[in-house]
Amino acid sequence: xxxxxxxxxxxxxxxxxxxxxxxxxxxxxxxxxxxxxxxxxxxxxxxxxxxxxxxxxxxxxxxxxxxxxxxxxxxxxxxxxxxxxxxxxxxxxxxxxxxxxxxxxxxxxxxxxxxxxxxxxxxxxxxxxxxxxxxxxxxxxxxxxxxxxxxxxxxxxxxxxxxxxxxxxxxxxxxxxxxxxxxxxxxxxxxxxxxxxxxxxxxxxxxxxxxxxxxxxxxxxxxxxxxxxxxxxxxxxxxxxxxxxxxxxxxxxxxxxxxxxxxxxxxxxxxxxxxxxxxxxxxxxxxxxxxxxxxxxxxxxxxxxxxxxxxxxxxxxxxxxxxxxxxxxxxxxxxxxxxxxxxxxxxxxxxxxxxxxxxxxxxxxxxxxxxxxxxxxxxxxxxxxxxxxxxxxxxxxxxxxxxxxxxxxxxxxxxxxxxxxxx
Length: 423
Ligand SMILES: Nc1ncnc2c1ncn2[C@@H]1O[C@H](COP(=O)(O)OP(=O)(O)OP(=O)(O)O)[C@@H](O)[C@H]1O
Ligand SMILES: [Mg+2]
Known about the structure:
Blueprint lengths: L1 E10 L2 E7 L3 E6 L6 H13 L19 E9 L2 E9 L6 E4 L2 E2 L12 E4 L4 H5 L2 H15 L3 H24 L5 H49 L31 E6 L28 H23 L10 E6 L2 E2 H4 L2 H20 L6 E5 L7 H11 L4 E6 L12 E6 L2 E4 L2
Parallel strand pairs: 3-13, 3-14, 8-12, 12-13
Antiparallel strand pairs: 1-2, 1-4, 4-5, 5-6, 6-7, 9-10, 10-11, 14-15
Helix pairs in contact: 3-5, 4-5, 4-6, 5-6, 5-8
Bound molecules: adenosine-5'-triphosphate and magnesium ion.
């Protein structure tokens, strides 16, 4: 799919803006702070209802205004559509598809699909487990929008149960009737937490299994320059295959591994990252049992953790405690990988997302915000070769020369709030 038009009102630094876009590569360049990232952030927001830079909506609305409106005309396999989002900080957003209001904001998800690369992606490798959980959940929603509801249900139940645990903990060692009443309430929440958590766990596990070969291949392609072979057939339905002749040797020094470390089924024992030899496409423990099995496992794990949860006033078991463990050459990426290796792995996660999202479907829009400035020349060229065939690629760069020639396309300059065609 691709955007044919982007229009903004009171979004970030833009009062009013409307630009025409086409398929292929489009580059936005201009001095620092002129509004390049703001543009692509808007495209990302239309696709995900979130920003890659901030966790709250207030900074997205132009200073002095009380709401922002974002519009994209999208051309895709299903025909043309118009996606509109009104951002109301502190209140629910309003969304329209083809001018009809939708009941819930999340009903718009899927109308526009994007994969966004940004300097912030380094945190996927170097940051806290929460960064990687968010990566998984956002990708899950991009692959199947119904997970937006699954995720928000889980977060709501978790918030309520955590509040209950906290207040029970604050009341010290409860005895007798008081303890029984708290226990009964907690039991009710345990059931709800397991019911809401199991589908999220299952979705994440399946996602990790599907993503794993793409990450390994993309890491190899980005870091060592394996030929980027676009294996799409003439029917255009095939996915991306980065594997050339020189595929990584299992367990080799640059082999990446990715394991979903689940607080619920951890005791089942998972293969050590980078151990090699084993079935690297193996499912996560517990995945085979499906959603009902995971719900039962979660109930069991929650029952076992009950005493410590009451002591500590936090919810110790569930998808919110899990970790996506990444490793390179058998060592955890976080804390061990070099800066360049971390970058390659972060890029590989995004490239793998792209490969997965286009499998059997139309391409999502690729967005690269200021990424080339962060990379050495080799990685720039390899990344460029891997993405240049995307249906639509939107790139921002302060220095146009940082963008490899293979990505020549439409050019815009961004200066003083004006976005102009440069060719
Ligand atoms: N809510 C807002 N209201 C008004 N201006 C804003 C708002 N949010 C951000 N800005 C302004 O937008 C500008 C930043 O724009 P942006 O991040 O798109 O720059 P950029 O062109 O990507 O720069 P760089 O090359 O440094 O990445 C800043 O000058 C900032 O003050
Ligand atoms: Mg920027």
